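Structural prep section.
Before we set up the soaks we want a predicted structure of the protein with adenosine-5'-triphosphate in place, mainly to decide which crystallisation condition to try first. Input record follows.
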Amino acid sequence: MTVLEVKNLKKIYRTRFGGTQVQALSCVNFSVEEGEYVAIMGESGSGKTTLLNMLAALDKPTEGEVYLDGKPLSSIKDKNISEFRRDNLGFVFQEFNLLDTFNVKDNILLPLVLKGENYKAMMQKLMPIAKDLGIAPLLEKYPYEISGGQKQRVAAARALITDPRIILADEPTGALDSRSTDELLALFAKINQKGQTILMVTHSVKAASRAGRVLFIRDGEVYHQVYRGNMSDEQLYQKISDTLTILATGGDRR
Ligand SMILES: Nc1ncnc2c1ncn2[C@@H]1O[C@H](COP(=O)(O)OP(=O)(O)OP(=O)(O)O)[C@@H](O)[C@H]1O
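Run finished without errors. Recording the tokens verbatim:
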């Protein structure tokens, strides 16, 4: 089943007074099946953040459409967008985006609080996720009392607690040291094995090598895709590195 479909997506940024235009996305097409783990790579300025913003309904495309479970995002009224995002999408960012005045538990529960769920229902969802992600002993601590790797686990728990249709991750390992990176990638692999659909933008070959498919964006288009097939993480790592070299040297995609 297709969860996400991106059709002929184009984004042109215009400066305020109609001056210069930047074509950030020229024509992006791809779809993501339920349970897939997709990484998106591309050089700085290739349009990855722009794409993620469209997928998250944080910005509107100039042309084209994004469909979640067949529903066009453009059909959602502006006043319902936040609710739609909260109910269907889970976000994990490079900078964790945790609230320092909330403890870990309240940070994780925030999307459910905003939804108006009752305390008992919230706790029933919290405990299995906290145990699964190894953060149960941290629930009463504050973000400034825990490590970067632990913060990212908390952010992942917050993303998972609403049981989202898809997790959108933007450079989730960008602020982590190598050990925490390994732990987070193992965690993402585990939640994907349990059926969670993940789409991750990353510069890291290591992070991308854990995905099932890697999309390469160049000049605002999906230029190439690599499927894991039967490849091990190491083999996929090598294939991604080779592809990036070809892209950087302007070679042919095949
Ligand atoms: N709000 C904006 N207004 C005008 N131009 C923009 C805006 N946001 C991005 N751009 C331009 O659109 C292009 C794509 O930017 P985008 O941030 O999507 O790239 P990226 O692949 O995410 O880069 P990075 O890896 O450095 O984060 C760039 O040329 C950028 O300068």
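Observations: Residues 13, 22, 24, 42, 44-50 surround adenosine-5'-triphosphate (CB under 6 Å).
Flagged for discussion at group meeting.
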